[in-house]
Amino acid sequence: MKLICIGRNYTAHIEELENERPKDPVVFIKADSAVLPKEQDFYLPPFSNNVHHEVELLVKITKVGKHIAKEFAHKYYDEVSLGIDFTARDVQDELKSKGLPWEKAKSFDGSAVIGKWVSKSNYNDLNQLSFSLKKNNEVVQSASSELMLWKIDELISYVSQFFTLKKGDIIFSGTPSGVGKVEAGDVLEGFIENESFFKVSVK
Ligand code: MG
């Protein structure tokens, strides 16, 4: 199973990190060992002093596909969820400045929080889903999937040009603005509309 992650998919987030607006989606992969086991606490890794939360909408791939056309992409997922792409921002900044790959900053153990899965049929329009992240009960990130530069179906079509998608693969569709540092003792809870999808304690 692989986690295919999209970077820079929301304009306001591109601006907050002073990144360049990409011509194509920015894509990276987290290893399956990055998944934080259900109900477990997130332990801050010793190699970073600046781990950021990035809340993201997720979809789970249900069958094998390659070169999937955008019009057919919806046939490749049935469920949606919400998760966190934890990012060691200090490590990432250093790697970025040297033009090196991001894995140490993005794919470390526990860096992928995956919430509960629900049927996409629960929602009228996946391109108009509101979602948010609360840190210690205060909203720190809040957005709608409407603001994505590339929507879910476009992302699936795009990434499937490079990687064969397999049953169980998960797409992390990018984070909106409001990313920030987490500290030991923080509690992070993610919501799609008003429903809680995960709750994680930072240690
Ligand atoms: Mg991200």
Can you walk through the features of this model?
The structure is a single chain. The chain has 203 residues and is an alpha+beta fold. The protein has one domain: Alpha-Beta Complex (Fumarylacetoacetate hydrolase, domain 2), CATH 3.90.850.10. The protein is built from 4 helices and 14 strands. It has helices at 11-16, 89-98, 103-106, 152-159; strands at residues 3-7, 26-30, 51-53, 55-61, 77-85, 87-88, 112-114, 118-119, 130-135, 138-144, 170-172, 180-181, 187-192, 195-201. Strands 1, 2, 4, 5, 7, 8 and 11 form a 7-stranded mixed β-sheet that branches. Strands 10-9-13-14 form a 4-stranded antiparallel β-sheet, with no helix packed on it. Strands 6-3-12 form a 3-stranded antiparallel β-sheet. Strand 9 and strand 10 form a beta hairpin. The longest helix has 10 residues, at 89-98. It is globular and about 45 Å long. It binds magnesium ion. Magnesium ion binds at residues 5, 7, 54, 56, 85, 174-175.
Q: Can you identify the CATH class?
A: Alpha Beta
Distinct small molecules bound, one entry per kind: magnesium ion
Cα-atom radius of gyration = 16 Å
- Using the coordinates shown, work out and report the CATH topology: Fumarylacetoacetate hydrolase, domain 2
Largest sheet: 7 strands, mixed
Judged by helices, strands and strand pairing, the structural class is: alpha+beta
User: What portion of residues belong to β-strands?
Assistant: 25-35%
CATH superfamily: Fumarylacetoacetase-like, C-terminal domain
Mean pLDDT: 97
Number of structural domains? 1
H and E string: EHEEEEEHHEEEEHEEEE
The percent range for helix content is 10-25%
CATH architecture type: Alpha-Beta Complex
